[in-house]
Design goal:
Elements: H1 12-24, H2 29-69
Length: 76
C-alpha cells in the first residue's frame, strides 16, 4: 500500500500504550494507529451527518407547519 506519510508527536505514555495495545491486538503499531484514526474519522463523519440531518428535519418540520397554518387563509 502506497500512501502519504503522516507524522505527529506523542508523549511517551501514549506511545507505550499504543505499542502495547497494537501488540495485544496482533497488529503492527502503524496498522493499529491507521485503524484508530479511520474509526475516529468515521465517528466524526457520522456525527456530522446526524447533526445536519437533524437541522434539515427541523427546517422541513417548520416548513410543513407553515404550510399547514396557511390552509385556512382563504387562498385555496
Amino acid at each position: 500500500m502506497q500512501g502519504t506519510t503522516l507524522s505527529f508527536r506523542a508523549g511517551e505514555d501514549l506511545a507505550e500504550q499504543t505499542r502495547a495495545l497494537a501488540k495485544a491486538a496482533g497488529q503492527k503499531t502503524s496498522d493499529y494507529i491507521r485503524d484508530a484514526v479511520r474509526e475516529k474519522n468515521e465517528r466524526e463523519m457520522a456525527s456530522r451527518i446526524a447533526m445536519l440531518s437533524h437541522k434539515l428535519s427541523a427546517k422541513h418540520l417548520a416548513a410543513n407547519e407553515e404550510m399547514d397554518a396557511s390552509t385556512g387563509d382563504g387562498l385555496d
